[in-house]
Amino acid sequence: MNRSDLKTKRIGVLMGGLSREREISLRSGGGCLRALRALGYNATGIDVDRSAAESLRQEAVEVAFLALHGRFGEDGAIQGLLELLGIPYTGSGVLASASGMNKVRTKQIAQWHGINTPAFAVFDRSSSLSDVDGDAGRLRFPLMIKPCEEGSSLGVDKIDSSRTFAEAVLAACRDFNSVLAEEYVAGDEVTVGLLESEEGLRALPVLQLVPRAEFYDFHAKYNHGATDFIVPARLPASVTAAVQELAKRVHRALGCRGFSRVDFIIAADGTPWLTEINTIPGMTETSDLPAQAQAAGISYEELVERMLFTALLP
User: What confidence tens digit (pLDDT) does each residue in 4-24 have?
Assistant: First the structure.
């Protein structure tokens, strides 16, 4: 199958899903579906639930365009199902998706490859108060608390003092099962979108995020006017080049395919610190990847088509 063959195939845009990011995924998927239809593709939308395999068969889907976020969609689960069904799909495979979805695995892989990432500790529902207090002693406040396997900044909180740390961690574990406590790095929040083709891996212009709130939380991500997008980022050329190359290293270290978006904090001395990778970046009207593509002269529709072509990559 080649690119021209895709116009003859039934394209299923998989969206919605079972995660806490369902509503964001519906927005991403709706935009991608409209773009594919405008480009002349035979595309249909599929709201993914536990009957996904049956829906794919009923709709006679031949190629899957993944616009799912969070658990069961970005974590390798749907990718594994598509592998079993023999349906080509966009983006990363099972292992890279699972690794990228888990912030702890991402950071461990980054550390193995010598990539800077803030110091951290991991907790789950079995953690006791003494466990939390003990690990707090080896980390420097303030700390960011993040669910290990959620996106869209869901559940992210900043803790400034050890007095409230244990309570916040244990509450987050009850809500999300496992959480990451990560040392806060003061600096500029930036993200680097990556697009892959037969010609290789390309880094898009670096996007700097300036939230009106204290940090880039769920509200700041998905509400107009809550965050200023600066693209290209206000960084020295040398730092821009370094963070773009570092994003490629992270993408390759995790074995990602097709596209991704890699997030960093740029410290005052210009050092990039990896925070996470997104293997299925948001595609809403306020999402980062479309803004970066636009800065590179790539329209939303062209971006969606390039993402579709990644289903053809080995």
Answer: 899 999 999 999 999 989 999
